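Researcher: Sequence recovery benchmark, item below. Answer with residues only.
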C-alpha cells in the first residue's frame, strides 16, 4: 500500500491552516473535476486523490489521526460516483462562511431556502376548522361566526420581508462570480445574492422577514338545514396567503354534531322514545310530541303495546340541498305508576276482579 502524503497532494506544508486547505482544495478540485475533464482517467484519479486528501485534512479529528499515524487506504470508499458538481463544491465553501456583519443576511437566505423548499412541496395554504354544533342546529340550519387565525401578507413590507438592500459583497453587485480567472473564465451566478447583486440588509421588524403575518378574522358560516356529521363547508379564499401573491387558500369547516339525549339520528331519520299513560295505551288519544320543529299533535291508537314504533312521515330531517325529508320514529313506552295511594289501589284491585271474570 502506497503511503499518501495528503499535504503534498494539496500542495501544502504540514502546518497549513484550515483556510489554506480549503483554498487549495477548491483550486485543484476545479482543475481536475471529471465534468471538466471528460474521459480523462488521469484527471479522475487525481480528483479522487484531492478529494480524499481534503476529506482527511479538513476534518480536525481525521487530520490529527493522519498526522499521528499516516494515511489509511480509503480507496474502496472513493469509487463513488461524482455526484458532486461544481456548485456543490462552491456552495459548501460559501455556506460555511460566517460573517457577523451579515448575520441578518444569513437569516434571510436561510429563510429564502426554507421558503423555496416549501414551494417545492406545494405549500399547504388551506385551513381546517372543527365546528361543534347541536342536533337542533344541524336540523334547522345555523348562521354563525367563527374566529380563525390565518397568514396574510405583511403590509409593512408588502410581503417581501425586508425594507432595504445593500450591494452584495461577494460579487460586488454584479450578480455573477468569476471563478478561477487564470485558467478558465467561468461566470457563475452568485450564491450569496442569487444573482441579484443585492442583499437584504434589514429584515422587516413586523414579520421578521417572513413577509407574512398571523392575523385573526371573523368568518360568517352558514350551515344548511340537515347537515350531517363530518360534512365540510368550504369557504373560498379564507385560508393562508399563497407565496405572498395575494392569492389565498380555502377554509374547510368540518361539522361535528353533539349527541342529543332524546333523539338519535340515522341519516335523515330521527328516533325517539315517548312515554304514555297506561290509560292512554288502553283508550288511545291525542299526545303532543316535542320535536325540533315544535310540537306535533299525534293520535295514539287504542290498545297500543309497549315498544310499538310509531312512524311520523316526513317529520325527520331535511336532506341537504334537497326537499326530501326523513321520517320520525317514536318508540312507545307505557308508564306504570309506582306511587298509587290506598284508594287507587283499592279501585285497581276491584278492576282486576272485573277484568279476570
Ligand atoms: Zn452576489
Ligand atoms: Zn413584513
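Model:
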Amino acid at each position: 500500500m502506497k503511503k499518501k502524503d495528503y499535504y503534498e497532494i494539496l500542495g501544502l506544508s504540514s502546518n497549513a491552516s484550515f483556510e489554506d486547505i480549503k483554498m487549495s482544495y477548491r483550486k485543484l478540485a476545479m482543475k481536475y473535476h471529471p465534468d471538466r475533464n471528460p474521459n480523462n482517467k488521469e484527471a479522475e484519479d487525481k480528483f479522487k486523490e484531492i478529494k480524499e486528501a481534503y476529506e482527511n485534512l479538513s476534518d480536525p479529528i481525521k487530520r490529527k489521526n493522519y498526522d499521528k499515524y499516516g494515511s489509511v487506504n480509503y480507496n474502496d470508499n472513493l469509487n463513488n460516483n461524482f455526484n458532486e458538481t461544481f456548485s456543490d463544491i462552491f456552495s459548501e465553501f460559501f455556506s460555511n462562511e460566517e460573517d457577523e456583519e451579515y448575520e441578518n443576511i444569513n437569516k434571510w437566505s436561510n429563510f429564502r431556502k426554507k421558503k423555496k423548499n416549501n414551494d417545492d412541496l406545494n405549500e399547504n395554504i388551506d385551513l381546517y376548522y372543527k365546528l361543534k354544533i347541536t342536533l337542533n342546529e344541524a336540523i334547522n340550519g345555523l348562521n354563525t361566526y367563527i374566529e380563525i387565525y390565518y397568514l396574510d401578507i405583511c403590509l409593512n413590507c408588502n410581503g417581501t420581508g425586508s425594507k432595504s438592500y445593500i450591494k452584495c459583497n461577494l460579487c460586488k453587485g454584479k450578480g455573477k462570480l468569476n471563478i478561477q480567472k487564470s485558467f478558465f473564465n467561468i461566470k457563475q451566478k452568485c450564491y450569496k445574492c442569487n444573482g441579484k447583486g443585492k442583499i437584504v440588509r434589514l429584515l422587516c421588524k413586523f414579520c421578521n422577514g417572513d413577509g407574512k403575518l398571523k392575523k385573526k378574522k371573523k368568518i360568517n358560516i352558514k350551515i344548511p338545514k340537515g347537515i350531517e356529521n363530518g360534512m365540510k363547508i368550504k369557504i373560498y379564499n379564507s385560508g393562508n396567503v399563497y407565496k405572498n401573491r395575494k392569492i389565498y387558500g380555502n377554509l374547510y369547516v368540518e361539522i361535528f354534531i353533539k349527541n342529543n339525549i332524546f333523539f338519535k339520528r340515522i341519516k335523515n331519520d330521527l328516533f325517539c322514545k315517548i312515554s304514555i299513560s297506561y290509560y292512554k295505551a288502553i283508550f288511545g288519544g291525542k299526545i303532543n310530541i316535542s320535536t325540533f320543529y315544535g310540537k306535533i299533535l299525534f293520535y295514539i291508537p287504542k290498545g297500543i303495546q309497549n315498544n310499538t314504533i310509531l312512524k311520523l312521515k316526513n317529520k325527520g330531517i331535511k336532506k341537504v340541498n334537497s326537499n326530501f325529508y326523513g321520517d320520525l320514529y317514536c318508540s312507545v313506552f307505557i308508564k306504570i305508576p309506582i306511587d298509587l295511594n290506598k284508594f287507587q289501589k283499592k279501585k285497581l284491585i276491584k278492576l282486576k276482579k272485573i277484568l279476570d271474570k
